[in-house]
Amino acid sequence: MGDDLKFAPKHDHHVPGTVSELFIEDCLQTGHLLDPKDYKNLHHTASPFHGLRLLFASPNLIGRLQKVCRDNGAMIVDTDPDICVATFQEDIPVGINQCTVLSPFWIEMVLRRQKVVPPFHVLHFPCRLAPIISEDEPFIATVTGGDRESRATAETMIRLLGGTFTPFLTTANTHVIVLEDRNQKSEKIMRAREWGIPCRSIAWLERCFEQWKLLDE
């Protein structure tokens, strides 16, 4: 993971047997054990994209996001990029497979942290353009538990899949996405069980996103 990303050189002050706080944070957020080697020598300056050549393939990304990345050290190019940024897989130019292809959500994460880290979430890669949800089989979901970032991530996945996100639980909801296992007795979960609304884990939602279809539990 992250082998193709070009990080700026930096002296390695990593102490054997220790891991960074960022590594622990990302493991907790994803619920997976990531590779600690990807968290050595990360580029952390006022210009996190310093020296990186970025190609923005999706028309909706041209403009403000390009300017922000340029202001943070990136070179905006049309050919020979280090990273191609695309919202949807259909936007990726033919023949661009020689570079790393990531989504604007990865860009936003780097800008928020002011540190380049390897992509670790399904949202960090382009998704498909056509939604999987039809009017015959609606997907109306709310979430419970988690922090603001994890709730926003779940909401984004629900919307990109073609579903409808609701901040509150109603009888019209078809699913409740549980962001934390320890949150099994939340008011939303108790009410969902009373109403017969399925409760699914965030891992289930991520698998749906990866396979681009609503899966059985």
Write the layout of secondary structure elements.
Elements: H1 21-30, E1 53-56, H2 64-71, E2 75-76, E3 83-85, E4 100-102, H3 104-113, E5 140-144, H4 148-160, E6 164-165, E7 175-178, H5 187-195, E8 199-201, H6 202-211
Parallel strand pairs: 1-2, 1-3, 3-4, 5-6, 5-7, 7-8
Low-confidence runs of at least 5 consecutive residues:
1-19
Kindly give the count of domains: 2
Task: Specify the biggest β-sheet.
Answer: 4 strands, parallel
Helix count equals 6
Shape: elongated
Could you name the CATH class of the largest domain? Alpha Beta
Measured between the Cα atoms of the first and last residue, the distance is 27 Å
In terms of DSSP E residues, the strand content is 5-15%
Briefly note the CATH topology name of the largest domain. Answer: Rossmann fold
Average of per-residue pLDDT values? 82
The share of residues in helices is: 25-40%
Strand order of the largest sheet: 2-1-3-4
Q: CATH-wise, what's the superfamily of the largest domain?
A: BRCT domain
Using only C-alpha atoms, the radius of gyration works out to: 19 Å
CATH architecture of the largest domain: 3-Layer(aba) Sandwich
Secondary structure: number of strands? 8
Order of SSEs, N→C?
A: HEHEEEHEHEEHEH
Structural class: alpha/beta
Q: What would your notes on this structure say?
A:
The protein is of the alpha/beta class and 217 residues long. The chain folds into two domains: 21-124, 3-Layer(aba) Sandwich (Rossmann fold); 140-211, Rossmann fold (3-Layer(aba) Sandwich), CATH 3.40.50.10190. It contains six helices and eight strands. It has a four-stranded parallel beta sheet with strand order 2-1-3-4. Strands 6-5-7-8 form a four-stranded parallel beta sheet. Strand 7 (175-178), helix 5 and strand 8 form a beta-alpha-beta unit. The chain is elongated and about 55 Å long.
